[in-house]
Design goal:
7-stranded mixed β-sheet; two-stranded antiparallel ribbon; globular
């Protein structure tokens, strides 16, 4: 599968200045950063959660970090947050390989919260709907197009710290 068609059509329609970086097949965002020579702090890892009411949300953190469920709860007010299972992933993102969703929740009807640390980077990179291509674009263009929930949200913790 090449770059996700839905994403590609939308980026072209919006005249977004992006580049696609192919890399060897990987199974994690951290591996994708390493094989594509993208700093892990600039590679968006998309994590999909479900709350106790059954509603989904997309959380975007750097590939080098883990989602802090307590911080997501504080930022969103949602309770009972847990990772979605693979069946939910296939249903929510039918045109993406599992775990390679691009960080554009509105394309899939899923609200998206982006860690504020990306706003301090000149560009953001993300999986293109597959595990062998990364899209690069300026963070300013990403924020303009994605319109994520942001505003001082720190939704991650370092992998070595305990918790969510």
């Amino acid at each position: 599968m090449a770059i996700n068609e839905r994403l590609l059509r939308w980026l072209e329609r919006e005249r977004a200045d992006v580049s696609v970086v192919p890399h060897e097949e990987v199974s994690s965002a951290r591996e994708g950063a390493a094989t594509s020579r993208v700093p892990a702090r600039r590679l968006a890892k998309v994590v999909v959660l479900r709350d106790e009411a059954g509603s989904h949300l997309m959380v975007v953190v750097p590939a080098s970090e883990h989602v802090d469920l307590r911080a997501v709860h504080r930022a969103t007010g949602r309770r009972g947050l847990r990772l979605v299972d693979e069946d939910d992933m296939r249903r929510l993102f039918p045109d993406c390989e599992a775990g390679a969703m691009p960080p554009f929740g509105h394309l899939y009807g899923v609200p998206m919260f982006v860690d504020d640390c990306f706003a301090h980077e000149p560009e953001i990179c993300f999986q293109a709907g597959n595990h062998h291509e990364i899209v690069r674009m300026s963070y300013a263009d990403f924020a303009r197009l994605a319109k994520p929930f942001t505003g001082g949200l720190e939704l991650h913790h370092e992998p070595s710290r305990a918790g969510g």
